[in-house]
Amino acid sequence: MAALVMLAACGAASTADPLPIRYQADGLVLAGAEHGPQLCAGVNLSMPPQCSGLDIAGWDWDMVEHEALRGVRWGDYHVVGTWDGERLTLTESPRPAERGEPPADGSDFTSPCPMPAGGWRPVDPVKATDQAIDAAIDLAEKLPGYAGSWLDQGYLDEIEGYDPRDPMEGYANDPKRLVLNLRFTGDPAVHERAIREVWGGALCLSPAQHTRAKLHTIQRRMEKEIKGLYSLSTDELAGHVDAGVWVVTPELRRQVDETYGAGLVVLHGFLKPISP
After folding, report:
1. Most exposed: 31, 132, 159, 205, by fewest CB within 10 Å?
2. Looking at the structure, do residues 203 and 219 belong to the same domain, yes or no?
3. H or E stretch at 206
4. What average pLDDT score do residues 111-122 get?
5. The last residue of a domain, from among 42, 75, 96
6. Count of H-run helices and E-run strands, the chain
7. How far apart, in whole angstroms, are the C-alpha atoms of residue 22 and residue 154?
8. Residue ranges of the alpha helices (H) in 83-206?
9. Nearest Cα to 230, choosing from 35, 41, 13, 16?
10. Helix (H) or strand (E) holding 253
């Protein structure tokens, strides 16, 4: 009787084993002489296209419509499968990619400083030139605590009929109307006198938590220490490092926070988990 109870308990435990997590993605799948079917995060738009990415197990080109040229096969697909840390194993037949509108950038280039009375205007129009912008940024990069820079072109929203797709719009980058944003750790106001020596246009100096040098150091470390990266960049506006990985796991997120500092690295997973 005791043996029967133990066997029953073991059977109950096995039925409760969690199912493997499935992931999905839309992207280009390509195979050529150098590698088999791979899901590509970035593509060289040559003809035929080229890429390298995540290996796919269970792929059959005879089961999908695709293009082919000089030994290369490719196509855009929606794929679903399990991931073992190295490859995606299909659990469903691929289907055409579900392409929608590209996601918005999400970056907010609005100057964080209060707008001066009368609006953003140059204090010295003679020094409000494209050359002066370059000189101001070059100078800022050499000052202690430099964290980043960007241009606020909010004035374009006030121009009726402005079309940002028209490269001939002469007022698209008017240095006398835009706001030069410079960010520093500590008190950014201590750098205003030096910046004003070269820049006479509208200026916003704002505080940051981390220097650009620190973020670049993290980026260089991640290139050597984190496997499976398909993209890596520093976001000076947000003040963190963006890292593209195939799958964002709780273990990886914890490792990144413990190694580089909580919130300093934002992970973006190419494969998205499917809810059970």
Report:
1. 159
2. no
3. strand 202-207
4. 91
5. 96
6. 5, 14
7. 43
8. 130-142, 192-196
9. 41
10. helix 250-260
Q: How far is CA 156 from each of CA 108, 129, 169, 173, 176, rounded to the nearest angstrom?
A: 14, 18, 11, 9, 12
The C-alpha atoms of residue 200 and residue 206 are separated, in whole angstroms, by: 17
Residues 219 and 245 in one domain: yes
Q: Which domain holds residue 196?
A: 125-162+171-207
* For residue 241, pLDDT beyond 50: yes
DSSP secondary-structure letter at 33? Answer: S
Read off the amino acid at residue 100: G
Tell me how far CA of residue 58 lies from CA of 55, 115, 252, in angstroms: 10, 58, 27
Band (pLDDT 50/70/90 cuts) for residue 171 is low
Is 50 exceeded by the pLDDT of residue 5?
Answer: no
Give the pLDDT score at 275. Answer: 76
One domain, residues 84 and 133: no
188 belongs to a structural domain: yes
Which two structure tokens, joined as six digits, stand for 35? 């590698």
Residues 6 or more apart whose Cβ sits within 8 Å of residue 79:
24, 25, 26, 27, 29, 39, 56, 88, 90, 92, 94
Tell me, yes or no, whether 219 and 198 share the same domain.
no
132 in a structural domain? yes
Question: Tell me, what's the pLDDT at 172?
Answer: 60
The pTM of this model reads: 0.79
